[in-house]
């Protein structure tokens, strides 16, 4: 049995819910190109590292400041209007007024996704992201390896 001192308190529970909502707001803001909603996600001095997909976007892969982030998204998302993102499997490490998160991300319309890493801070307006990094992952090579393995197993199973 867990002693009361070892149980997460209501504040920790509320923080985890708010941070999960923060990550959901991010996906909705990006997919709907809603910069007002996005403002409720990031701090004004946010640092965002998209260097893993930088080759697809003109300019720098790392941006500093909310306005620079919006300008980056305007360029990056222009060819992808209508794309949808899913974010799941949130790991949240809380440390007082700071939290580190890792979330899986999948772009519904592409065989691409990745892992979002963020550092969140408690502000007077609630939790906000001050550092954000995308670790891009592509599924094509993984699918090819899995299908190759399954074909090998099927061929061995069918052999006399």
Concise synopsis of the structure shown:
The protein has 160 residues and is α+β, with helices and mostly antiparallel strands. It contains four helices and six strands.
Task: Provide the descriptors you would attach to this structure in a database record.
six-stranded mixed beta sheet; alpha+beta; 4 helices; 37% helix; 160 residues; Nuclear Transport Factor 2, Chain: A
Structural class: alpha+beta
What average pLDDT do the residues reach? 87
CA-atom Rg in angstroms: 19 Å
- The fold-level CATH name is Nuclear Transport Factor 2, Chain: A
Describe this structure in words.
- The chain has 160 residues and is of the alpha+beta class.
- It has one domain (8-158): Roll (Nuclear Transport Factor 2, Chain: A).
- 37% of the residues lie in helices and 36% in strands.
- Strands 2-1-6-5-4-3 form a six-stranded mixed β-sheet.
- The radius of gyration is 19 Å and the shape is globular.
Write the layout of secondary structure elements.
Blueprint: H1 10-32, H2 35-39, E1 42-49, E2 62-64, H3 66-77, E3 85-95, E4 98-107, E5 112-123, E6 126-138, H4 140-158
Parallel strand pairs: 1-6
Antiparallel strand pairs: 1-2, 3-4, 4-5, 5-6
């Amino acid at each position: 049995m867990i002693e009361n001192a070892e149980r997460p308190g209501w504040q920790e529970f509320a923080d985890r819910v708010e941070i999960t909502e923060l990550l959901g707001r991010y996906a909705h803001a990006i997919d709907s190109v809603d910069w007002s909603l996005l403002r409720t996600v990031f701090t004004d001095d946010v640092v965002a590292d998209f260097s893993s997909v930088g080759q697809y976007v003109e300019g720098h892969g790392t941006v500093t400041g909310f306005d620079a982030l919006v300008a980056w998204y305007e360029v990056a998302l222009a060819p992808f209007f209508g794309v949808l993102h899913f974010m799941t499997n949130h790991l949240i490490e809380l440390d007082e007024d700071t939290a580190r998160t890792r979330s899986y991300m999948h772009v519904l319309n592409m065989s691409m996704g990745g892992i979002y890493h963020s550092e969140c801070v408690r502000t007077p307006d609630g939790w906000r992201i001050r550092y954000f990094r995308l670790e891009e992952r592509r599924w094509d090579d993984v699918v090819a390896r899995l299908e190759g393995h399954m074909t090998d197993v099927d061929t061995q199973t069918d052999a006399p």
